[in-house]
Amino acid sequence: MPAHAYTEEHLVELPALGLLAELGWETASAVEETFGPNGAFGRETPGEVVLQPRLRAALTRLNPGLPTEAIERAVEELTRDRSAMSLAAANREVYQLLKEGIPVSVPDRERGGQRTERVKVVDWDNAAHNDFLAVRQMSFVGPLYKCRPDIVC
Q1: CA-CA distance, 148 to 126, in Å (whole number)?
Q2: How far apart are the C-alpha atoms of 49 and 149, rounded to whole Å?
Q3: 111: CB partners within 8 A, 6+ apart
Q4: What's this model's pTM, rounded to 2 decimal places?
Q5: In sequence order, what E strands does 43-113 have?
Q6: Which of 38, 66, 62, 43 is nearest to 125 (CA)?
Q7: 81-99: per-residue pLDDT in tens?
Q8: Contact assessment for residue 83 and residue 92, using Cβ atoms and an 8 Å cutoff
């Protein structure tokens, strides 16, 4: 057996990706990621932690009747900087948005004025409608740290 067969990559990372692929997840490697609009994941820099092009596409697909402005407001709310909050409060807030949808104001074409709609982030009734992606070796750079997790889902 080759020496490299006993590495974390071969014993844990690649089998985990294989299992996720069997479960229907899309898998990708970011080992040689390129950045910019034509980059592998649409990130401009390694400081971006949300794959906004994929998020926009998923929100548009899950909310076909909502205007582009509502989708953009939902992306802004979901990706808003919460670093001034405690970790527990920030996690609780994002969890609520994922669970219940993101409230946005949209024009009420029937009655005039505005009305509030909820932008669905997760289709809880049909998991096949969601976008599942697992990426190996994606680098992230923040103000204090640089990290490269084995797998990000």
Answers
A1: 32
A2: 12
A3: none
A4: 0.86
A5: 102-107
A6: 62
A7: 999 999 999 999 999 999 9
A8: no
